[in-house]
Specification:
By secondary structure, this protein is α+β, with helices and mostly antiparallel strands. Helices cover 31% and strands 25% of the residues. It contains 16 helices and 29 strands. The strands form 9 sheets. A 7-stranded mixed β-sheet has the order 15-14-16-17-29-28-26, sandwiched between helices. Strands 7, 8, 9, 10 and 11 form a 5-stranded mixed β-sheet that branches. α10 links the parallel β14 and β15. α7 packs across α9. The longest helix is centred in the last third of the chain and has 41 residues.
């Protein structure tokens, strides 16, 4: 009893305070190690998982493991990527169930480096400043995803921009692929079509072509349940044309003799197929600068084959792509939109539709990209009714067509010509309350081409949109800046004809220093004269329309009316207004989908803008927030010269004056305080104030 009282007295006394504090700190650390919370105070919640990521990892059916091989203590900015990656893994683990796990590996360990190389990761060389010297350092910056029998490596993670998007979409593809392969019956066929006659032309890489493809197929098979079956075929001359028509395989003709007569024809191509679906693997004959032929497409064959397999089996959302009116070709990698198709292939499949009257029932979004000929009344009506039923439209329309001279004429100084484009789509645009200008928007805030010996040349027809030109409140354009638009028409809102239930939103606009060139005859920057201030103003380059639309047709055209029979009931499928809300994104240029401004990897702002548009039209706003996370550009706001000088003056002279004033006020306050204290304790003594201490 006495011992209990002594213990209680000690605990209640001051002697135990230090020991109790230490015990509390230890217990608090033990609790916080397993239960903690974090606050993300960034505007775009850059360090928090998006809803789509949380849903993905919380519904895993099999264990998903992440192995991270990232060198520690890297110089800036790579050290922030490692920290961000660790935070992401913690977020994934917190949102996921017990089936999600991750592990960071020390790359200083030789065994770990060998393991990383076995997964396909490769070290990179980065610059490092140390002891006033600049040197190179070997760094590992990659990770590996393991799910079921599937393995996917993400390498060269040199930036945190879009990192969550890459991780979540890669995980989603792996899960979908694993589920598809698990329920797949039969093999996936990889077929090499190569004419044996090509061996006589000394083509570099042709001799070992079959062996190299077989090796790449073996590596891909290891990651995909050995479902690929490789074979090689030597097509006959009669089969070459059929292969070219069916798969788009490159047809190769050769001639013999001095008269140049045709000596034969062959084929060279690699096709991945399953049932009626197929994917072409880029494998083409190319000619070197110094003569001779080689086979292009062998450098990253394993990676290319893996991507094609995912595209073949993925449950991608199909988007209708109209192709019967001279639209940008999906097969043209130089002047068409082949790069765009590759850019969105991880989520969407662009399905070519020759006529708008033949839209499949499963299509919910239609893309019209740069048509050149006029739509028939029945096609316009089909697009109109597609929108009335709740469909979505992505329209990239040109009002001027640039016709380039052929190579021979260009050698003699021939210039491009420009013709007006009439598609008939104005009928639909006017019913939505918008219209397109007949020329190009030129902007003083434009891309500057640098030419040796001349300097910077302003390309007024290539507006460069800063963050002020992008709508920061709309998902498609949020967080984007320095977006290039090329040869774009202006989009005008016609308030008188705007349907009541439709919301008009500007996505991208030129600067206040832009004007309209209606009669386009040349794009030579030296031929333009900048108009006066009264003609300069902002112009809409891309807009979004959404809501309930009104049909542009009062009734069905004759071609859609059912044939009347005696005694039969007359029916109609015409919708005068939307039965479901629809979305339309209208852009005044199709040139933004070509390699002229669209980079191969889609990392430039215009590529992100296009991908955001696809996601928005298909209701995948969560993907947009992941893709643009961390892209907010905190650039300086534009201001005038007077404001800049005023701010500079405040910084140089105002702050020191304020500091001196604050010191003076503090000094006078202390003097008054001393006087007050002395007057309180020595009221009868006259005190002489000391001015200096």
């Amino acid at each position: 009893m006495n011992a209990f009282k002594k213990c209680t007295a000690w605990l209640m006394g001051p002697k135990s305070d230090m020991y109790l504090l230490l015990i509390i700190l230890v217990l608090a650390n033990l609790v916080s190690a397993g239960a903690f919370f974090r606050f993300d105070l960034t505007n775009e919640h850059s360090y928090s998982l998006s809803r789509a990521s949380k849903e993905l990892v919380s519904t895993l059916d099999e264990p998903l493991s992440v192995k991270v091989y990232f060198t520690s203590n890297l110089p800036a900015p790579y050290n922030s990527v490692e920290r961000y990656l660790r935070d992401l893994m913690i977020e994934y683990k917190g949102a996921g169930n017990k089936r999600f796990s991750y592990e960071f590996f020390d790359t200083e360990n030789a065994e770990n480096r060998q393991q990383a190389q076995a997964y396909g990761l490769r070290p990179v060389q980065i610059q490092e400043v140390k002891d006033t010297e600049i040197g190179l350092k070997t760094a590992w910056m990659g990770l590996v995803l393991l799910y079921g029998d599937s393995i996917e490596a993400l390498d060269s993670l040199g930036t945190s921009d879009g990192l969550e998007y890459r991780l979540t979409t890669s995980m989603g593809r792996m899960i979908a692929m694993n589920d598809t392969l698990s329920g797949l019956t039969g093999s996936i066929n990889l077929t090499l079509y190569a004419s044996s006659e090509l061996s006589q032309f000394g083509i570099s890489g042709f001799k070992d072509l079959e062996k190299n493809i077989a090796a790449a197929c073996t590596q891909v098979n290891k990651k995909n349940r050995n479902r690929l079956s490789f074979s090689s075929k030597d097509p006959s001359k009669e089969e070459v044309d059929e292969l070219a028509r069916r798969y788009g395989i490159q047809k190769i003709n050769w001639s013999v003799g001095k008269n140049g007569e045709e000596g034969g024809a062959g084929a060279l191509g690699l096709v991945l197929s399953f049932g009626e679906r197929f994917r072409m693997i880029p494998l083409e004959l190319s000619r070197g600068i110094f003569g001779g032929y080689s086979i292009a497409g062998l450098e990253n064959l394993e990676e290319t084959l893996g991507d094609a397999l995912q595209g073949l089996l993925s449950r991608s959302i199909e988007i209708g792509y109209l192709s019967g009116h001279g639209e940008k070709s999906l097969a043209d990698a130089r002047e068409g939109s082949a790069r765009l198709e590759n850019l969105v292939s991880d989520r969407y499949e662009l399905r070519e539709i020759v006529s708008a009257t033949e839209i499949p029932e499963n299509i919910t979004t239609i893309m019209v990209n740069g048509p050149r000929s006029e739509f028939s009344e029945s096609e316009l009506y089909a697009l109109d009714q597609f929108l009335m039923r709740g469909g979505n439209l992505f329209l990239l329309l040109d009002t001027v067509e640039e016709i380039l001279p052929d190579q021979n004429m260009a050698m003699y100084g021939a210039q491009a010509t420009y013709e007006s484009v009439h598609t008939g789509l104005d009928l639909l645009l006017s019913s939505w309350g918008v219209s397109l200008s007949s020329g190009y928007v030129l902007d003083k805030e434009c891309y500057l081409a640098r030419q040796q010996g001349v300097g910077e040349i302003p390309l007024y027809y290539v507006p460069l949109l800063p963050k002020e030109g992008m709508n920061s409140k709309h998902p498609v354009s949020r967080n984007l800046a320095y977006v290039l638009f090329l040869q774009s028409a202006a989009i005008t809102q016609v308030h008188e004809s705007m349907p009541e239930g439709v919301k008009f939103t500007t996505l991208a606009s030129s600067s206040p220093q832009s004007w309209l060139l209606e009669d386009v005859t040349t794009l030579n920057p030296y031929s333009f004269s900048i108009p006066g201030p009264e003609e300069l103003s902002k112009r809409n380059l891309a807009v979004a329309l959404e809501g309930t639309f009104t049909s542009a047709f009062s009734a069905s055209p004759v071609i859609f009316s059912e044939q009347e029979e005696s005694g039969a009931l007359k029916t109609t499928k015409h919708l005068s207004s939307s039965v479901l809300p629809g979305r339309v994104i209208l852009v005044g240029s199709s040139a933004i989908t070509t390699p002229a401004v669209l980079d191969e990897n889609g990392t430039q702002p215009i590529g992100i803008f296009l991908r955001n548009a696809f996601d928005y039209l298909n209701g995948n706003e969560d993907l947009i927030s992941m893709r643009t996370k961390g892209l907010a550009l905190n650039t300086l706001d534009k201001t005038t010269e007077v404001k800049r000088k005023a701010i500079r003056g405040v910084n140089l002279y105002g702050l020191p004056l304020l500091t001196a004033l604050a010191g003076l006020l503090v000094w006078r306050g202390r003097v008054r305080r001393r006087r007050k204290i002395k007057n309180h304790y020595f009221p009868s003594v006259e005190i002489k104030e000391e001015v200096s201490q």
